[in-house]
Amino acid sequence: MYELFVNGDRIGDLELTPGFTAYRSRLQVQPYDVGGALGPGANAVEILLSDGWFRGRHGFERAADGFGDRTAALLAIEVALQDGRSMTVTTGPGWWSRPGHVVAADLMDGQRTDLRLTGAASLDEPGWSPARPVSHGLYARRDRLLLTEAPPVRSVAELRPVRVARLDAETVVADFGHNINGRVRLSGLGPRGTEITLRHGEHLDADGRLDTEHLRAFVFTTGERLPAGQIDSVVSAGRPEDVFEPRHTTHGFRYVEIHGHPGPLGADDVTAVEVRSDLAATGRFACDDARLEALHQAAVRSFQANACDIPTDCPQRERAGWSGDWQVYVQAAALTHDVAGFGAKWLRDLAADQWPDGTVPNYSPNPSGPGPVAGSFSDTLHGSAGWGDAAVLVPWELWRAYGDLDLLERQYDSMRRWVERAATAAREGRHPARAAARPRPAPHERYLWDTGAHFGEWLEPGVEPALGDGTDHGAVATAYLAHSADRLGRVAGLLGRTADEERYARLAHAARDAWQREFLTPDGDLVIDTQATHVRALAFRLVPGELRDRVAGRLAALVEAAGHRVGTGFLSTGLLLPALADTGHLDAAYRVLLSTGVPSWLEMLDRGATTIWEWWDGVQDGRARGSLNHYSKGAVVSFLYTHVAGLRLPECPGLDEAGYRRFIVQPRPGGSLTWARAEHRSPYGPIRCHWRLEREALELTVDVPPGTQAEIRLPGGQVLYRTAGRHRVRARALPTSEPD
Ligand code: BGC
Predict the structure, then answer these.
(1) Lower CB count within 10 Å: N or C terminus of the chain?
(2) Each residue of 214-241: pLDDT tens digit?
(3) The one catalytic residue among 318, 445, 460, 518
(4) What is the separation of C-alpha 231 from the centre of its chain, rounded to a whole number of angstroms?
(5) Phi/psi of residue 494, each to 5°?
(6) Reading across the β-sheet that carries 725-732, which strands appear in turn?
């Protein structure tokens, strides 16, 4: 990670540069105009380097030196002189280096800073030695150095503490009101030599002290629990004007516990700086139930805190680009933010990390690079169904939302290689339990994917997570094979690859057939009687059309038996409410959405969540569990747009429909809502969709941007097509229990 200074001035407003990519293949470079910082005569150019993601730690194993064990910088300054001549200054022999005032910096551990070591850059100072040029075979190829299409990471907001509490003579806790990704800026650092420590976290114990026990990652291989990290420290140089802001790390936090500040610590001395990808906000949701608005806000905050050049699972414990998390959330993200460039960048990392056999790592960037590294435990888990499917489903969602055909073209090979790899695994392996029960494989088993490492549905309420225990996850994996093959076939069609279009449609059909033969009884019941299996059957259209109602009825019954609470896990929680609402069970969908108690979204909020939790019981009896800032369960906010407000994209948009060129407006009032509104800044301009119940009538206002067409589906079945302009429509409102 670097910061650039010219004559002492920090250049640019970007943070955590050069950002996080699959460094073994791709490294971002940033261009700056430094003209204003240069002067006549000698100019001093300094680069402050730290470990960053390259040499520092992240992920659930937090191995150091993930990408390499040496830091380096590459710079070129091109100067056009007034007399028409030009010159170029580049890094190379003749540069000098020395240890700086950032004594240690790591994205998990935090940053240690000794301000006594700052000072003039003069080469007359002691401590300099010739910089060692490194010949980086890796980056010698210019095509590995790239300008990014993703919006940069910046400091986007500053938060004042809502409360500062003194715990004892040495210790103070500041509460910034909600979770963010960022860091704390601190002033009033006291006399020279004063050492101040800042610990960051998301939870306070009963005594008001910071509690980070729940953030200590569990290491599967050793059973050990890692320290929670997120600790910055600073040694004061005694200059009253000094301000500490650790620019070579960020943390996921709401609270900071400050130890050793000489005080008095005024509210002006402590500021939280929110650091994240500077994504344009594109979506707004409002309705007359404040709890749903709060849920929307919590999900948006979680996403924002996890958008840090890559989409991460959580900003404190792992900060890894877990593919499954982004796969389940990308639709919601694309409703609330412009994630076109952000998503496209990450897909390049995913493709760069894909193994020769098509395996997609469960997170990207992956330090191991495009293949497994001997002895790495995490490398034995890659290619999990639902996670690896991000290779197909993320580009698919981005296509729906932005209509960028070039992205599909660029990712096509990666998508295809993933699906082929899953199909090969299905063809070549059999789960030992199935092989024992049925020594001769049934013909459909060629398309049954029941081997390999999978997380499965993962984290269903009441089910303890188990990894690598040999569980048969064939129902989940085969479902994803069918679904991804279907989407890939459609993409092939869009790209004019007719042979592939047919091939993958056939593969999807065969995988669906295998799924039915294995997991659907002749009576039309699902063998695995869980909410998640029913949700997937409906959402991925795995059951024959004539059985949809029956399966939907069973899902509604399961949901009712659970007291209208979520019973799904990681993969299908975001799909649950649409699966209910789209099959005649809108009422049940609203009851789940508005339910309280564990597990439910509103219970998280009732218990004080400001971002979405990893576990439904993230805080129980005052104790925290797991990450309190994990966006995956927040995928439910899609439903607020697509069903509650009623603004959605066609399921499979055609060439001239994607990117909101055609969209559907179909409000689905429910609960006790009397109005709802969604706004979305589409690539064609702002779309607004606002409904209000007036006695028995539904009054709907829709803003349609130029170049697009809205298909307005009214209660009772009437369909209107509208082009640019504001449209007001009145229709008879239906009770929510009535199917469309
Ligand atoms: C992460 C997840 C991720 C999962 C894989 C967790 O440790 O935080 O969100 O998808 O592992 O099961």
Answers:
(1) C
(2) 999 988 788 889 999 999 999 999 999 9
(3) 318
(4) 24
(5) -60, -35
(6) 283-287, 675-682, 685-694, 697-704, 725-732
